[in-house]
Structures are given as C-alpha cells and as structure tokens.
C-alpha cells in the first residue's frame, strides 16, 4: 500500500538550528517561507534584487543573492518556475551547495525528467503541495494543512527522509498527509492532469456551451446552467467528501435517471484512447523534448495559442454573464 506520512511520524529535530534557504519568493516561495518561519525554523530568502525581493524584506526576511543564500544554508528549497530551474540550478545553485546539503523541490518535473544534474554529495527530496501557494499559507494559518506528494530522489547523508519529513511537518502539510511517490511519477501525474484530464474537461464544457448557444439559448442562461452558478463547484466538493457515486443521491430522481441512462453513449467515445495518447507523450519524454525546443525558440506556438485563447468569444460571454448577475457587486 502507498505510504502516507502524518504529523505524528515526524520530528522537527533534523532541521532545528539549521538555515533553510528559500530560493524564489513567488506563489510557493512566500507561502512556504512564512509557514517554515512560523514553525520556528530559521529561514533566509535567495532572490535577485527586484519586487519579489522587496516583498520578502517587507515580510521581515533576510534576503540575499541566490548564490550567497545557497552557500550559507544546510537546506535549499528551489521554488522558482520549473522552466527556469535547469539554468539557475546549473549556474547559481549546484556549484555553491555545501556537502550534505538537502535540495528540495516542490515539483518532480526537473529531477524526474533528468533536466538537472545533481552533485553526488547532496540529498535531493520533493515536497510537492497539491495546493496553490495562497492555499498553502491559508490552510497553515487555519491549522488545516494540505496534501502533498513527497519523495527522496537522492540520499547522500542517509538522513534525507528524516529531513524531508521534518520540512513537511514544518510546512504544515503532514496535518493533512504526505503521500510517497517518485519525482518522475509526480511529474507524470501533474502533466497528465494538465494535458489529459484538464483539456478533456475543458473541451466537454466548451462543446456544450457552443452547442447550446448555437441552438439559440441565451448565453447567460447557458453559462449559469453549466458552471457559473457555483453548483458545479459545490458538486465537486461533494464528490471529494461524499464520493463520486454517493453524491448522485443529492440530485433529483429525474436527474439520476437521465444521467444513468444516457451515460453509456459517452462511455463509448474514444476518450480513454485520447487520454492514453497524452500520457504516452508525457512518459516517453516526447512532450518534454517539444516544450524544451519551444522555449529555446522563444515560445512562438505558445504566444500564438495564448493570443487565440484571448480572442475566444467565451471571454465576452462570461463578462456579459457576470454583469447580468452583478458578480462584481456581490464580491464587494
Ligand atoms: P513563481 O512563478 O511564483 O516564482 C516566482 C519566483 O521565481 C520569484 O521569486 C521570481 O523572482 C523567481 N524567478 C523567476 N525567474 C527567475 C530567474 N530567472 N532567476 C531567479 N529567480 C527567478 O513559481 P511558483 O511558486 O508557481 O512555482 C515554484 C515551484 O513550485 C515550481 O517547481 C512549481 O512547479 C511548484 N509548485 C507550484 C504551485 C503553484 O501554486 N503555482 C503548486 C505546487 C507546486 P524574479 O522573477 O523577480 O527574478
């Protein structure tokens, strides 16, 4: 059975009296630095001199250059965007790591796909929150914790797992649970949810919207019916807490009958095949090769696709619906 670590299985002792360098002060960097500090751990921030560094200083952290922060710390949390990590790691992190230091990633992407080369004399671990940065902070403050995937990638000291669990405890993630998997598995699952499940769901939504609007239903009614009312969000919550099948009992008999009898025609779509295609591209490294080349060429396709996305009629339809239901006024 897959191991899930909880708070009572770890101790802060391996990181007490050590210096933790948080490299990057963005989404995860800020949240994790604040959580660690509030757990009584000594934290410094490594970041170029720019608005992120100013924010870290305003939050009361000692901010150094990345090289200085890495050189003076027993633990180095690499919390900058995955696309940037290979270059920054090679030039500013790897050459300055202390022997026996522990390098921590919040995603398995770079290590899992072999995009970075580690010195032999360091530990490498992953604590990958299944939560966006602000959620990592809010749920720590509320004492709730958040789930993470954790794993040891390289164990030079023989104590990598203890260090990883101590950090996970201090971050607050073990109040919820840290599930042990490899960095490669974490990266593949993450990419699959972005390239398989996400786009399949997005296409289902867009196809439904385009069909109904094309059939003459008012845009605002279509968007409200399908997702903007908040009912979908509520149902997803029920799926998490009650169960995907069990939550069906909260819907009317008409809804249950209609959904059960019509489900088969969608089960017959070649959906699994398409999802497997996305998974195969991820596992074989085809996607990583393509994405690395795209970045080297200055993101021509990425820019084109983003432009096209912004020109989609959905943007106006949604604004129209928000206005009709006074969303902005409600938020205030
Ligand atoms: P952000 O985009 O929020 O990171 C911004 C930080 O990275 C800033 O401090 C920025 O400083 C720094 N940075 C950007 N470019 C460079 C550069 N060339 N050299 C040095 N520093 C740089 O990243 P996230 O927090 O989103 O992601 C960090 C890690 O966390 C990634 O591994 C990601 O996969 C993982 N993760 C992220 C989640 C999220 O909530 N977004 C969820 C779970 C995991 P500046 O630009 O000013 O130099």
How far do the termini sit from each other?
47 Å
Please state roughly what percent of the residues sit in beta strands, choosing from under 5%, 5-15%, 15-25%, 25-35%, 35-45% or over 45%: 5-15%
Shape: globular
- What is the radius of gyration? 23 Å
Strand order of the largest sheet: 1-9-8-7-6-5-2-3-4
State mean pLDDT (0 to 100 scale). Answer: 95
How many strands, what sense, and barrel or not for the largest sheet? 9 strands, mixed
Structural class: alpha/beta
Helix content: 40-55%
Output the helix-strand order.
EEHEHEHEHEHEHEHEHHHHHHHHH
The unreliable regions are none
Q: How many β-strand runs?
A: 9
Q: What are the bound molecules?
A: NADPH dihydro-nicotinamide-adenine-dinucleotide phosphate
Compute the number of helices: 16
């Amino acid at each position: 059975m897959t191991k899930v670590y909880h708070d009572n299985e770890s101790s802060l002792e391996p990181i007490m009296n050590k210096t933790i360098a948080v490299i990057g002060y963005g989404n995860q960097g800020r949240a994790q630095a604040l959580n660690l500090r509030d757990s009584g751990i000594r934290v410094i921030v490594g970041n170029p001199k720019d608005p992120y560094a100013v924010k870290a200083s305003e939050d009361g952290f000692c901010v150094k250059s990345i090289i200085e922060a890495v050189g003076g710390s027993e633990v180095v949390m690499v919390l900058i965007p995955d696309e940037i990590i290979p270059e920054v790691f090679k030039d500013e992190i790897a050459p300055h790591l202390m022997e026996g230091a522990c390098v921590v990633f919040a995603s398995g992407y770079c290590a899992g796909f072999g995009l970075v080369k580690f010195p032999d004399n360091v530990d490498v671990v992953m604590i990958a929150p299944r939560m966006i940065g602000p959620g990592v902070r809010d749920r720590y403050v509320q004492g709730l914790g958040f789930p993470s995937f954790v794993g040891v990638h390289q164990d030079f000291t023989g104590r990598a797992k203890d260090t990883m669990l101590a950090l996970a405890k201090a971050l607050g993630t073990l109040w919820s649970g840290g599930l042990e998997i490899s960095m490669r598995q974490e990266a593949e699952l993450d990419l699959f949810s972005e390239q398989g499940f996400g786009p399949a769901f997005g296409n289902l939504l867009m196809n439904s919207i385009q069909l109904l609007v094309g059939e003459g239903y008012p845009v605002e009614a279509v968007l409200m019916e399908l997702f903007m009312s908040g009912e979908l969000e509520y149902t997803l919550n029920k799926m998490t807490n009650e169960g995907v099948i069990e939550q069906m009992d909260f819907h009317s008999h008409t809804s249950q009958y209609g959904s059960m009898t019509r489900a088969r025609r969608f089960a017959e779509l070649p959906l699994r095949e398409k999802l497997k295609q996305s998974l195969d591209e991820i596992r074989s490294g085809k996607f990583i090769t393509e994405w690395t080349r795209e970045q080297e060429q200055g993101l021509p396709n990425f820019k084109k696709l983003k432009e096209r996305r912004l020109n989609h009629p959905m943007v106006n339809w949604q604004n129209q619906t928000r206005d009709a239901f006074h969303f902005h006024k409600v938020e205030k």
